Amino acid sequence: MEPRLNGKGLIISLIFFLLKFSTAIEIPPSVQQVPTIIKQSKVQVAFPFDEYFQIECEAKGNPEPTFTWTKDGNPFHFTDHRIITSNNSGTFRIPNEGHISHFQGKYRCFASNKLGIAMSEEIEFIVPSVPKFPKEKIDPLEVEEGDPIVLPCNPPKGLPPLHIYWMNIELEHIEQDERVYMSQKGDLYFANVEEKDSRNDYCCFAAFPRLRTIVQKMPMKLTVNSLKHANDSSSSTEIGSKANSIKQRKPKLLLPPTESGSESSITILKGETLLLECFAEGLPTPQVDWNKIGGDLPKGRETKENYGKTLKIENVSYQDKGNYRCTASNFLGTATHDFHVIVEEPPRWTKKPQSAVYSTGSNGILLCEAEGEPQPTIKWRVNGSPIDNHPFAGDVVFPREISFTNLQPNHTAVYQCEASNVHGTILASANVDVVDVRPLIQTKDGENYATVVGYSAFLHCEFFASPEAVVSWQKVEEAKPLEGRRYHVYDNGTLQINRTTEEDAGSYSCWVENAIGKTAVTANLDIRNATQLRVSPKNPRIPKLHMLELHCESKCDLHLKHSLKLSWSKDGEAFEINGTEDGRIIIDGANLTISNVTLEDQGIYCCSALTALDSAADITQVTVLEYIVEFEGNKEDPGRWEELTRVQGKKTTVILPLAPFVRYQFRVIAVNEVGRSQPSQPSDHHETPPAAPDRNPQNIRVQASQPKEMIIKWEPLKSMEQNGPGLEYRVTWKPQGAPVEWEEETVTNHTLRVMTPAVYAPYDVKVQAINQLGSGPAPQSVTLYSGEDYPDTAPVIHGVDVINSTLVKVTWSTIPKDRVHGRLKGYQINWWKTKSLLDGRTHPKEVNVLRFSGQRNSGMVPSLDAFSEFHLTVLAYNSKGAGPESEPYIFQTPEGVPEQPTFLKVIKVDKDTATLSWGLPKKLNGNLTGYLLQYQIINDTYEIGELNDINITTPSKPSWHLSNLNATTKYKFYLRACTSRGCGKPITEESSTLGEGSKGIGKISEGVNLTQKTHPIEVFEPGAEHIVRLMTKNWGDNDSIFQDVIETRGREYAGLYDDISTQGWFIGLMCAIALLTLVLLTVCFVKRNRGGKYSVKEKEDLHPDPEIQSVKDETFGEYSDSDEKPLKGSLRSLNRDMQPTESADSLVEYGEGDHALFNEDGSFIGAYAGSKEKGSVESNGSSTATFPLRA
């Protein structure tokens, strides 16, 4: 039979059973009991993007409970056919179909059977409405420079959290600083306005992240009148000084508002974040400071934000209550306000009533205590109703406790305790079950248990009984209760036998008895032998790079053999099952083998055994040793110890290789995995006898020399290599291959200068070390060359082959080897442009150089200017330098294709026409023959239209008028400049045609910084009217997500390059217009004399109202009366500069209830895709943006 107890040791078993016994008594399902709520919903929000809304209520009980609901304190019946209920459950679903706002309210679930009624906490179901600003007409505001002003936001109510932002109509943030501040309510305050604050598009945006919605208030216009007219005859410096002196004033608090007086009270809940704000008007701009009256601000939890205007204290405690003062000051005075901070707290439990099982006639007590600020009120309920309505005989009710005496079965009920104050309500339930039942043993009869000798055994006898029962254990064959200190019976009936022996094996009986009756079960206990381990060898000392073999011998009970598992670890870290991947460490069950032992292998090795009932372990410590023998005796670096050799394992002697003529001293260091030992005491000095050199110098070479000269150098022998006194070097040399005797010279340093009769001639050279005891080994001969000279002749250019307009191939004859006078490194081409064939202009000489290494007779010269004349020379160079140049070779490059035009702009668009203008390419690369203009439709889809071609054969014409275009369509234009060789790379531009009834506009795009007071806008026509419009240009950059484009609008575009006033056709047109005007005036004069009248409409057209015209000119776009259209970031005309894959109506993407999709400065990130309809900013009321959440 399988053992029930997986014994891992006495401590583990004790912890397990102590935890088990500490849990509350569970009534078996077979015993009648009151209902208990086991699952319920909390606050539920009906988000519009959810499919359904589920309100949960689950309960247990015997008999099976039934469920009822209340809504806002009234019975709630499932009369709506859309509600989906579940069998044997109180849970129901509300599908997200149609209007569901009438479902909003506070629900409570009741689970009941004949014994009692359980009540859930209140479940609030919220159906949020779409927030929107009210329809209103906002009058323009006009103030003088230096005055204070407040722009109200008054955001609509909606599901929190609420985030407020002030922006302009192009979604660029209104900059806030010490002078400009947005309050917690969303109003925008100015301590003193400046002329730059004038604008007609102050917009307040309210964002509701959990609803994925943004609404926009109508733009507000603020006009700041300058004070420069204070003295028109004064200089600008004097004007500014006078204006400032007139407006300078001491601070006056705007926040808190004046009507709140000099002090106000704020209530904050414990654990929340306290925000206090102060803002003062004045000039100069006041500075705000904070302090706590009679104490210090809490260090580590307080921060000052928004240039000191906001005091923030996180995780508020009761110690933070008190008076806080803000002081606004400038050099003219101060203003103060005191905040009286009150810290309160919702109810929280200190003692909750506990469910319990009672027998007839017993007594009991329920305790219910809670804390909070204000002190919570305690109310008791029985079966969901106030206890005053259904009192039980014998109950004594106090605010914080209920006591029972002489309980009877009909006293069974569910008691509820509610603690509430102004900040909330909490509910705790306690079941009072009055039960009289014979003991029910829940452990199966005949269970088998096993443990090992010396471990504890646990035999279970879980039961339920009321009244209380007595448990006794006995061995079956002995028929008497167990007695002794080794036996312990827990309250739940479990028997513990400590320090078991083989005699404890056998059958046991558990008897449970109360006043109603008694019951018994049996249990069988088997005792196994404990597992034993021994690792060998014990604590070995292993030489480095040797093999280590460890063996784990185990002894295990036969019944546990099948479950025995062995594992190895080193210093507490387990090995893989089979060892390491490289095979250096191999584990084969009980054997561990390590090859090529290193210092890292040193440590404590453990073999562990695990069975179904017990575990065992044994360790051995492995030590890896290594010895380092060091010496001192280097004459060049006396006192420095150097490593001579390493000795592995247990050896204590070693034969050392020594050098002659050295005075040695030795010491030894032991090394293991931890590190090195201290060195031993140095040995006595030992001097080796001298000897002849046993090696010759290395790295024999020639240093840069003059012609017919060799400076021979080599690496000198070190002091440890000299082997004796009187070290010298014997150098021998002769011309390579010549039948002559070797020349010889002996030197003491490591360099020798030799003169030679020839330039760059090869020589055989030998260098041998000698000392007073003899010569070193026979030296090897090396080949060295005498000094080089410059090449003395130039290559001959055979020709220049033109590959294309920018690339040529040059060929030349190589110079003879005897004229190189050294080692040829390559050839060099020099070239320079002499003139342009386009205009014949002569260029100053600017030499370009290109080198080709090695022996070659041709090379390619790239990056030439097309349609130009060049001169070119070739020379040879060696290690000494460059030789003479060849005679210049003259060649010309042909025409090429031009570079792209310098710019392409759409200067005028209409519903079916567009006028384009461009600039000449920087490099024409030939005679310009014309342009190739191409265009195609690229509306915001993946499909693009057919490409249309127009050949413009007039090179001097810098513009083109396109007609027969589609209205309200986006186009992409490509323009290439052309020569006789073809057309160059295109320059592109995108633009959209206008809709029906729209007025044609001229357009030019330039970058602009909103903070600048002037913008670099080109004036196309003197006296022309221009309208500046800021457009969103790039939606992908989180650092600066809104960039600017300037759009200018004029009455007509006068041209970019030519003065048309001198053109004949222009003079004729002006004459025709003058003649037509004269005829019209004559007709009008005649009609007026006859008494004719104009219609009202004609008068309005001829004489528009200046105020109406002004409003029209200042309007940003058309407005819709709808309240539910998505917010648009700009007008339709702004779409022309958007990329095909970007949305012109993009604003922001939200995560549910998360503010992380905003930058620290509040910048929107991403885009939302809401309504498919592209509307405009609304005029009356608010704009609403609804968009999906992206994962």
Write the SSE topology.
Elements: H1 10-21, E1 33-40, E2 44-45, E3 52-55, E4 57-62, E5 66-71, E6 74-76, E7 84-85, E8 92-95, E9 105-113, E10 116-119, E11 123-126, E12 141-144, E13 149-151, E14 163-167, E15 180-182, E16 188-190, E17 199-208, E18 213-216, E19 220-225, H2 236-247, E20 249-255, E21 263-269, E22 274-277, E23 279-283, E24 287-292, E25 302-305, E26 310-313, E27 322-330, E28 333-351, E29 356-358, E30 364-367, E31 369-373, E32 377-382, E33 385-386, E34 396-398, E35 401-404, E36 413-421, E37 424-434, E38 437-441, E39 447-452, E40 457-459, E41 463-466, E42 470-475, E43 487-489, E44 495-497, E45 506-513, E46 518-528, E47 532-536, E48 541-543, E49 548-555, E50 565-570, E51 573-574, E52 585-588, E53 591-594, E54 603-610, E55 615-632, E56 642-648, E57 663-671, E58 686-687, E59 698-703, E60 709-715, E61 728-735, E62 743-747, E63 751-755, E64 762-771, E65 774-775, E66 782-785, E67 796-804, E68 807-813, E69 824-836, E70 848-853, E71 858-861, E72 868-878, E73 889-892, E74 904-909, E75 914-918, E76 930-937, E77 948-952, E78 959-962, ...
Parallel strand pairs: 2-11, 12-19, 21-28, 29-37, 39-46, 48-55
Antiparallel strand pairs: 1-4, 3-8, 5-6, 5-9, 7-8, 9-10, 9-11, 13-16, 14-17, 15-16, 17-18, 17-19, 18-85, 20-23, 22-26, 24-27, 25-26, 27-28, 28-31, 30-35, 32-33, 32-36, 34-35, 36-37, 38-41, 40-44, 42-45, 43-44, 45-46, 47-49, 49-53, 50-51, 50-54, 52-53, 54-55, 55-56, 55-57, 57-58, 59-60, 60-63, ...
